[in-house]
């Protein structure tokens, strides 16, 4: 599904309540009252679609990237929050529990009984807390799986409360067509939760893996290798990632997304590059061989599928090397004849993963591996500094550089710098593929 079609579908869903309201031909109210209702209904539609955006559906994230999907999810959630907070202050009509006999269409009054008032207040108070807890997730004194459970429960409470409020107090939502629209959208939202927390784990349960080895490959960085115990091996494309659960039930909330560093040609074995960082990865080196593991479906659009280039440029920062290693290994397995350059940035040489393998890779025909260190030790003979515009201009100076395919993965600041540099050197935007390995 093309990204434009996805975005058009999203807009259509969010404006449908406004269209269904306009078709009712109810007597007009003051402009601010109509704006208030419009903001409330638009926010409600956005909130219900948010369930689908966060549900790891490859039909969506596979086209635009999981990082873009989640950033859009976060942006529109904040937009909906503003709409929700503002809309009650715009009403000029009186708040009455029951409509006046001479005002059956609610042209001059708002029909808020005790129930709809309570559910409206619940959503109005809970949604800001919900969004703030998401924005400042890393500062909260909770483990990620606790936060995730709270996030799911909170989302359901808000969705159900807003549904009741809209159906009971909404002037336009009393219409059967619009009421049906809300109920269908709510059902889809709740179904997406069931898919994420029940149906998808059931699929994982049919494909258990076990840890075959855990070895240190760089400073605070480890390789975790898996193989299936039974069932089909995970299908993935070079450059993708998967959610990994170690030593728990497939229904556990203790999971993390990690980029796959092995090539599809290595299936059924799967390898990951994991850096010690948060609660779950701090002790990754202590994981014992034989530990059961569960893998979700592969996600991500940092792949070569459907893309062409006279050469392949892989540009990585830190642990962002993982998906690019998968691509490099697959190209090697396929004996791809195109020239390839791997530009790899780190702070120190001790952070370089698979140093021996990368050195061997650079010995292949038409293949070059270039390391860039920002804080090298004395005696370092390679490039020094950052992967910036100057470095990009020097490394990719060939006449056909604009026809190459550039695949980027790393910290946000590096990605922005590299993308700007490539565009400034004339590389078409469609030849640049980027994905962050961390996003807020």
What does this structure look like?
The protein has about 450 residues and is of the alpha/beta class. The chain has three domains: about 200 residues; about 90 residues, Beta Barrel (Elongation Factor Tu (Ef-tu), domain 3), CATH 2.40.30; about 120 residues, Rossmann fold (3-Layer(aba) Sandwich), CATH 3.40.50. The protein has eleven helices and 14 strands. Strands 6-5-8-3-4-7 form a six-stranded antiparallel β-sheet. The protein has a six-stranded parallel β-sheet with strand order 12-11-10-9-13-14, sandwiched between helices. Strands 1-2 form a two-stranded parallel sheet. Strand 3 and strand 4 form a beta hairpin. The model has no long low-confidence stretch (mean pLDDT about 90).
Q: How many domains in all?
A: 3
**Residues in helix, %:** 40-55%
**Any low-confidence stretches, pLDDT <50, length ≥5?**
none
Largest sheet: 6 strands, antiparallel
Structural class, please? alpha/beta
* Strand arrangement in the largest pleated sheet: 6-5-8-3-4-7
What is the arithmetic mean of pLDDT? 90
């Amino acid at each position: 599904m093309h990204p434009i079609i996805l975005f058009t579908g999203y807009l259509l869903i969010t404006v449908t309540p406004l269209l269904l309201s306009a078709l009712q031909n109810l007597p007009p109210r003051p402009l601010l009252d109509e704006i208030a209702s419009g903001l409330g209904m638009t926010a409600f539609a956005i909130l219900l679609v948010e369930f689908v955006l966060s549900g790891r559906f490859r039909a969506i994230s596979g086209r635009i990237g999981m990082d873009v999907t989640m950033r859009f999810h976060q942006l529109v959630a904040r937009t909906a929050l503003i709409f929700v907070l503002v809309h009650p202050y715009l009403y000029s009509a009186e708040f009455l529990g029951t409509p006046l006999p001479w005002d059956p269409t609610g042209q001059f009054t708002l029909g808020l009984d005790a129930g709809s008032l309570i559910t409206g207040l619940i959503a109005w108070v809970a949604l800001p807390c919900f969004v703030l807890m998401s924005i400042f997730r890393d500062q909260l004194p909770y483990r990620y799986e606790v936060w995730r459970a709270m996030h799911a429960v909170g989302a359901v409470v808000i969705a159900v409360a807003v549904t009741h409020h809209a159906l009971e107090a909404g002037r336009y939502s009393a219409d059967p067509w619009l009421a049906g629209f809300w109920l269908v959208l709510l059902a889809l939202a709740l179904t997406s939760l069931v898919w994420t927390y029940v149906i998808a784990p059931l699929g994982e349960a049919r494909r258990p893996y076990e840890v075959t080895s855990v070895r240190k490959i760089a400073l605070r960085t480890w390789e975790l290798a898996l193989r299936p115990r039974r069932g089909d091996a995970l299908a993935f494309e070079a450059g993708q990632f998967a959610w990994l659960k170690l030593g728990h039930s497939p229904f556990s909330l203790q999971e993390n997304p990690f980029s796959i560093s092995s090539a599809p040609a290595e299936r059924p074995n799967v390898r990951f590059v994991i850096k010690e960082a948060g609660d779950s990865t701090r002790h990754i080196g202590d994981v014992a061989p034989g530990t059961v593991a569960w893998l979700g479906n592969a996600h991500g659009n940092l792949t070569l599928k459907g893309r062409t280039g006279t050469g392949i440029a892989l540009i990585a920062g830190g642990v962002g090397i993982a998906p690019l290693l998968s691509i490099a290994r697959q190209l090697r397995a396929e004996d791809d004849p195109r020239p390839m350059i791997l530009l790899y940035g780190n702070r120190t040489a001790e952070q370089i993963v698979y140093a021996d393998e990368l050195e061997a890779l650079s010995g292949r025909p038409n293949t070059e591996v270039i390391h860039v260190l920002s804080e090298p030790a004395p005696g370092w003979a390679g490039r020094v500094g950052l992967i910036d515009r100057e470095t990009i201009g020097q490394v990719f100076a060939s006449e056909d550089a604009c026809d190459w395919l550039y695949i980027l993965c790393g910290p946000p600041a590096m990605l922005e710098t590299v993308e700007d540099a490539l565009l400034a050197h004339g590389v078409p935007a469609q030849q640049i593929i980027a994905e962050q390995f961390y996003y807020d």
